[in-house]
Specification:
2 domains, Rossmann fold, three-stranded antiparallel sheet, seven-stranded mixed sheet, alpha/beta, about 40% helix, Chemotaxis Receptor Methyltransferase Cher, domain 1
């Protein structure tokens, strides 16, 4: 199959940036070729040039979503970057207990391991009587990964290394054709609201949150896009709210009004005002 031409790469790059905020830097041509070749075959097309035209002609948005799925990686796991969940359990949730709804947003939730880990951590921290106060929103741009997240089915090996008692309390073991799999119990799945959301679009209609997780998502964005997104997240935080990013990420050079707490952990000033447009 012929390689993507410079013009075609630029078209895909512009499209991905405009719609999804994805920053495909020069030098990613080989990656784009490799990731899209399978889709070209699935569609019965003869070249990547034909695929570019098919994406541009699609009015449903479905092929755009397949494009972003092909170009990004949905790697995640339960208790990934466990320091954040220790912080949630020990410092974030206890002061909020008994003070009304506790709103947490998992932005870029992928196949669901992150929001379920948030939920299980909160269940232990708050206890049975107070877990009902938790309002947990989990969003992703991909309907494909959201379907998997809502189903809550995972290989049983994913539970290795989780805290004692989690498997029995939160999961069902698969039988028959589901042997070797586990599923989050329905009463726990029902406590997470999964919703499709493109972070490049307006989300100002959402309520304010006490905690926003946006981990290993902004690595795909350039600095101007990161800055705009962080500012918008900041607006959706309650005063004193927490903003958690991936440990491989950073806000260096990004103007925002959040206070740095520790690596990958930021907090909105309790007064609710901007921190003066500081750069981290």
């Amino acid at each position: 199959m012929e390689k993507l031409s410079e013009r075609e790469f630029l078209e895909i790059r512009e499209l991905a940036y405009r719609i999804f905020g994805l920053d495909l830097k020069p030098g990613k041509e080989a990656l784009v070729n490799a990731r899209l070749a399978r889709r070209v075959q699935e569609m019965g097309l003869g070249s990547l040039a034909e695929y570019v035209e098919a994406v541009k002609a699609d009015r449903t948005g479905e092929e755009l979503e397949r494009l972003i799925n092909a170009l990004t990686t949905n790697h995640t796991s339960f208790l990934r970057e466990p320091q954040h969940f220790a912080l949630l359990r020990e410092a974030v949730l206890p002061p909020l207990a008994g003070k009304g709804p506790i709103r947490i947003w998992s932005a870029g939730c992928s196949t669901g391991e992150e929001p379920y880990t948030i939920l299980f951590t909160a269940a232990e921290a708050l206890g049975t009587e107070r877990i009902g106060a938790l309002q947990l929103l989990a969003t992703d741009i991909s309907t494909r990964v959201l379907e998997r997240a809502q189903a809550g089915i995972y290989p049983k090996e994913r539970l290795e290394g989780l805290p004692a008692g989690w498997a029995q309390r939160f999961f069902q073991r698969g039988e028959g054709r589901w042997e070797g799999s586990v599923r989050v119990k329905p009463e726990w799945r029902a406590r997470v609201e999964f919703r499709r959301l493109n972070l490049m679009e307006d989300f100002g209609y959402l309520p304010r949150f006490h905690v926003i997780f946006c981990r290993n998502v902004m690595i795909y964005f350039d600095k101007p896009t990161q800055e705009r997104l962080v500012r918008r997240f900041e607006e959706r935080l309650e005063p004193g709210g927490w903003f958690l990013i991936g440990h491989s990420e950073g806000l260096m050079g990004v103007r925002h009004g959040l206070d740095y707490v520790r690596p990958a952990v930021y907090r909105k000033p309790a007064g609710g005002g901007s921190g003066g447009g500081r750069r981290a």
